[in-house]
Amino acid sequence: MFFGRSRKGIKNLSINDLTDRDNSFTRNGIIMHVAVVTEVFIDAKGNVTAYDMMHGRNSETPASRSGSKEIQSTNTKGLPPFGNWSQHWVAAANMATRK
Known about the structure:
With about 100 residues, this protein is mostly beta strands. The protein has one helix and five strands, in the order βαββββ. A hairpin with a 5-residue loop joins strand 2 (about 30-40) and strand 3.
């Protein structure tokens, strides 16, 4: 899962917007965080209701798991559905594909 900058309005994305490829992949791209989905929760109709993900952090914050769902918090308004707190979900990719 790829997540974009917090609270930034994101529409009609291109690969250049996500990565800032035109500027030698600087930190100006939209992608700010990457996580690996470890579990998906599905309702009786086959809709994704939530998922758990593993975050590789940094030397100050250890790696850990967290979850996300359509409504992330009833106490904090304006969080994007299925986001990483205030970071919008902007892309997904398979880590490996079946042969």
